[in-house]
Specification:
This protein has 69 residues and is mainly beta. It is built from no helices and 6 strands. Helices cover 0% and strands 28% of the residues. One of its GO terms (cellular component) is extracellular region.
Length: 69
């Protein structure tokens, strides 16, 4: 089975829950980052209520990310 190369994945500063696959490159995670716009491949983008007044979003589906170490 193949998966996307790490370099081509959306970046995520705070990866939350992840699958436990081997090798590690096969893992998919939920990104806990709150951003102005979800990445193109996100299949479940949810609006997050914040006090800033600006619309912010979080991708809540398991996706392939380039997680910050």
């Amino acid at each position: 089975q193949t998966w996307p190369p790490v370099e081509g994945r959306p970046s995520c500063k705070r990866c939350g829950a992840c699958t436990r696959m081997w090798p590690p490159e096969a893992n998919r995670c939920v990104c806990d980052d709150i951003v102005p716009q979800c990445h193109e491949g996100c299949s479940k983008c949810e609006k997050v209520d914040t006090r800033s007044g600006k619309p912010l979003y979080q991708c809540q589906s398991f996706e392939y990310y380039n997680c910050a170490a």
